[in-house]
Design a protein that fits this description.
By secondary structure, the protein is mainly alpha-helical. Helices cover 58% and strands 0% of the residues.
């Protein structure tokens, strides 16, 4: 991204490196860190010797803010959001914040209404309803 162009997440001006990057939702990071933590527990008699404070704090954070705990639910959420031609950034914001209405979703992710790829309110509502079903049956 050139130095003259100002970054603006609302317009998806987040830099080429971020547009191409694979983003993870908090719930996905939680599953990865939990798995790593379990591996460390199996290897060591005292797992706290193997875990840094940063690792521990990161795990606590993503566990606290993860909206989905079940691995199958996490997979379903990514699948649902992936069907809607969202960028990775948009997908993760919606997956992490779980808006309840199309209005909330657009307020959180204004790029959903960008010209040329604008999502209708009905499509956004359907996507959010699908996500709420996953949460309800988790």
């Amino acid at each position: 991204m050139s130095g003259e162009e100002e970054e603006n997440a609302a317009e998806l001006k987040i830099g080429d490196e971020f547009l191409k990057a694979k983003c993870l939702m908090n719930c996905e990071v939680s599953l990865i860190l939990e798995h790593k933590y379990e591996q460390l527990q199996q290897v060591s008699e005292d797992p706290m010797n193997q875990v840094s404070q940063v690792f521990e704090k990161s795990l606590q954070y993503v566990k606290r803010f993860s909206r989905y705990k079940n691995p199958d639910a996490v997979r379903q959420v990514r699948e649902i959001l992936s069907r809607h031609q969202l960028t990775e950034f948009e997908l993760c914001v919606l997956g992490n914040l779980c808006p309840e209405t199309a209005e909330e979703a657009v307020a959180m992710v204004p790029s959903l209404k960008t010209k040329g790829r604008a999502q209708s309110d009905e499509a956004i509502e359907k996507m959010l309803n699908d996500l709420s079903l996953v949460k309800r049956f988790e």
